[in-house]
Predict the structure.
Amino acid sequence: MVAQRYRTASTLYPYSRSEDQDGSVQRHPVVVVGGGPVGLGFALDLGQRGTPVLVLDDHEGPGLGSKA
C-alpha cells in the first residue's frame, strides 16, 4: 500500500534537476527543530561528533517538558 503510494507520487511528480544544480556535493549543518530535552540532547550528541548543528525553537527560555 505505502509502496504503491510512493510509486504514484513519483509518477505524478517526477524529479527534474533545476538549472542551478551543478552536480557538486554541498554539506549543510543539521537543523534540529525544537529546543526541548530531546532536541537539545540530539544536537549536543551531533555537536560532540563534529557535526555542525542549528537548533530552532519558538521559545526563548527552557521548555516545561518533553513532548517526544
Notes: The first strand starts at residue 30 and ends at 33. Helices lie at 2-12, 37-48.
